[in-house]
Amino acid sequence: MSSTALSRPLPRVSRLFPGQAVAMTAVIAVVAVFVLYPVYFLLQASLDVGAAGVRPPTAYGLGNFAAMADYWEIMLNTLGVTFAATALALVFGFLTAWTLTRTNVPFRGTLEQIMVVPYYVTPLLGALAWSLLGAPESGFVNQLWRRAGGESALIDMTSAWGIAWVMALFEGSVAFVMIGAVMKSMDPSLEEASQVIGAGRWRTMLRVTLPLVAPGVLGAAIFVFAEMLGSFSAALVLGTPARFYVITTAIYQFVSQYPPRISLAAAMGVSLFAVMFLMLYLYRRVTANRSFVTISGKAFRPRAMDVGWLRWVLFGVCLSYVLLSVVLPVATLVYASVQKLAVAFPTADNFTLENYRTALSLNAVRSAMSNSLLLGLLTATIGVVLTGLLSWIIQRSRLPGRGVLEYIVMFPQAVPRLVFAFGMMWAWLVFPIPIYGTFWVLLIAYLTVFLPLGVRTISSVLMQLDKSLDECGQVSGASWGYRLRTITVPLLRPGVLAAWLLIFVASVRELGASILLMGPDSKVLTPAIVEAFFSSSSELTAAMALIQTVVVGAAMVLFAAVTRRASRHGGT
Amino acid sequence: MMSLQHTDVPEIEVEDLVIRYGQVAAVGPVSFAVKQGEQLTLLGPSGCGKTTTLRSIAGLERPSGGAIRIRGETVYDAARGVNVAAERRGLSMVFQSYAIWPHMTVFENVAYGLRVRRAGAAEIREKVGNALDLVKMGAYADRNASQLSGGQQQRVALARACAFSPGVLLFDEPLSNLDAKLRAEMRIELRELQHRLGVTSVYVTHDLEEALAMSDNIIVMRGGHVEQEGSPGEIYNYPRTAFVADFVGSANLISGRLRPDLDRGGLVALETAGGIVVHGTPHGRVPGPDPTMSVRTVHLQLSAAAPAAAINVWPVVVSRSIFLGDLTQVHVDWGGRDLVIRQTAADTLKDGAAVYLSVDPGHCVLLESGAAGESESVARPLQQSALAALPTE
Asked: Residues of A near B (CB-CB distance < 8 A)?
């Protein structure tokens, strides 16, 4: 046999059109502009000490950072709320993670699946519900308390503790997932070794188990702390009406008030970003340099410890967490949404479906909803293409500087979306093409802030794909585009679909970036809900929030059905 | 060379190939050529650069220097800045992990290279059928690739690599993921297939038996350098260095000083520190300052009575005898040092038994001058640092 292979030359088209080079250059250029352009303007604004309202700045200095000292109260509030919420979230997370992975608690499997639901009940939903429950005057709990003969208010959700409570309920499931993963991956033989040597059960837990999971718990603590520092919606809904500000709500206030204090807000944003960046760096250090090899590659389920009667107590703890973070808030919103005036004591003549009718018939709400859905579709669809290519470049290409690219792509994760949007607002205001205040600036903002989400999701699947699957196509003579179409994309489908859904849901629910960037003709749903909360009734707000939840839920169910069918039919 | 015309231009030529990761040299410089229809094996321990060399030929790795030519056409040349993409080199490769695409049927996997080349439907059907029959997988064409066992996946990978009739086949440890018995079977099948197709191939393995059984030529690599090149017989019988002697089978290494006064009939004489004189073949090698001989453990013979030979016969005492199944490994005390003999004789020798040890001088091979020292001091650290550099890639 000889050179029959040579008699049919490989298609030459790809030589004329270097698809790979063009696509890679385009993606990198787009990402660099999306991420770095706003960051540049954010930094510039924070250093602007020249004449107010003149761009570009007439003078640079650190005056804005110094001026932050006048707002020490806000910093103190932020730290207080964040520390309290982190501590609470860790208690929730650790207790539930330990209970569900290491004890013989009843209904363990079911509980484990339910435990991630709080994450899908956003902090905004939680804040709206808990505001109905725990506002000092009108809160249901306080109404009941006074009816029972109590004095003034039992709980105050507008306080620092209230805000921390709502954030902790939401982040508790994040802590649960992170700590649970560490506990699950622990080789039980490490504990068995201790027991065989003669240490008792509690001694083993103190001397072996705890030290082994400590790095994982520390990592979760840092991660949760950083997330809380940048969180916005709970403090906005609960704190702002009572003039209780944390750093994110203060930045929002400074930007949206008249006259705005752009430079001060920028300085706060940069400082917040610097602290979060440091925290996330620490998080990576803690989790990457874990000197304890707890993951051994063997398949095992850690042994469940028999805790006797205590198992029912632990079951109660887990159940309470789910009740407080999911069932009670949703039930509260449903209850409030069908009342003319939300009160704790139901009467027949107070019942109404008017709120839903209003929510669905108001033009503003309808356009906000259709804008949100369209943005979600576009962001998710463009986003998976963009993040898919980025993941490929970062994980697979031999492009010099792909490490730097990874940092740029992951950058938005370390910046609260509100702060990032602020940089974008400032950047696109001076952009020659007038897109500021339009639908398109929101699309660009969503694509940018959800880059890390998409890249992380697709990369995790890409990393599991054997590199030689692609290389084999290459030596078989297939060009980059052909391999992408026939090998990489089909194999990546689960990751791409997951990324699509995550980006879609996140887009429809987006608040921090949208609230600053949406224009009068490009309203979107979540800021519209917040606006309704501040300016109209809480009953209407509850109805709107529930409609959003149902729409997102329906989209997820529909999506799941479609992908299940696709994966059934798309065997080849 | 006065041989046939078509063997004159090598199918693959590798010239002064160098591969660096940062400042660390992983391979090279390495040069070799593969004739048309020849099967060359790159043999060596993990991290010796054999896979990297293979991937450079395939175009999956970008070398740092040198040149690679396939059928006379330059596919890589550092000096001229040529680097033809893997998909345009017209080769084929079987991967260590098989790389069977799980989202395609067996048929589609095998048809891939033909589809890329825009073959017609009839041609695809015929060639895929032939390729699958070749590896006895014809009945599995419609099977989903993810339902196959390891051995079946291996066969499909092979059929896929051959289906579009490439001129050159590259194998990257294709049998290393199979169990020992299947591996022995596949070894023979692969060799037969290779003969039938007459395809030029480069095969990478760390398995000695595989290399000896399958190759026309073997290149033993170590620390990114060629340690020895030759036919399987040459490599096995006449190892050039202590490393090859040790890596290719098991050998006793005997050092001492040369006694030219005792040389006889083309044989050299070596006197050990213990005063024992061994005669061996120089195999055209120039003895160096620290002469060493290699003797394969299976070439040494033990007997109860003294053999008639005049040289290379010594009375020894058995210190330990270990039954290994097919073989029995005997340790003897030989002038104060331990010597290992592997023999098929089933009767285990008692510890402490006095016997005679003899060896054919043709099996005592003088190693190349300085080769042992060089490989110890230079090659090993190089190899380790190359390994250390890999994870960062």
From this structure: 1-6, 8, 10-11, 14-15, 398, 466, 468-469, 471-479, 482, 486-487, 490-491, 570-572
